[in-house]
């Protein structure tokens, strides 16, 4: 398995973690029985960590299709190499670090983590061009 394939799979697991954080904080807020219903009249989120987790998830989903697409493209074209592997890992670890930084409200460093993920995607893209 190439590093790019490994990162692809790990990124999907990270997506599930993002989803889980939002779900778990919501369960603590309103209880599981409310969430088992149609959710028509859910109250707004009150938990700061849940709100941040939801925003972090939205941000993650903005880069997710681009990253997965690039990872597939670099493999489909046969252009995997050291640069694409480093770019893939940079994207992944930047997104891993980004989540707790966002949830716990750490400024500035969070933006650097986001920037690292963009640089990682750029490194992958540069190998396809």
From TrEMBL:
InterPro entries for the chain: MAPEG-like_dom_sf, Membr-assoc_MAPEG
SUPFAM superfamilies linked: MAPEG domain-like
Superkingdom to which the source organism belongs: Bacteria
Entry keyword set: Membrane, Transmembrane, Transmembrane helix
GO cellular component: membrane
Cellular localization per UniProt: Membrane
Residue intervals passing through the bilayer: 7-28, 66-92, 99-125
Stated name of the protein: MAPEG family protein
Source lineage: Bacteria, Bacillati, Cyanobacteriota, Cyanophyceae, Acaryochloridales
């Amino acid at each position: 398995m190439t590093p790019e394939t490994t990162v692809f799979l790990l990124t999907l697991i990270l997506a599930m973690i993002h989803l889980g954080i939002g779900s778990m904080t919501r369960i603590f807020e309103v209880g599981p029985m409310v969430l088992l219903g149609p959710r028509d009249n859910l109250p707004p989120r009150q938990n700061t960590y849940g709100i941040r987790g939801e925003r972090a998830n939205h941000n993650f989903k903005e880069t997710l299709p681009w990253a997965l697409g690039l990872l597939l493209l670099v493999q489909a074209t046969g252009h995997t190499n050291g640069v694409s592997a480093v770019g893939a890992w940079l994207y992944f670890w930047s997104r891993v670090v980004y989540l707790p930084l966002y949830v716990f409200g750490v400024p500035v460093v969070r933006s650097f983590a986001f920037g690292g993920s963009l640089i990682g995607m750029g490194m992958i893209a540069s190998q396809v061009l």
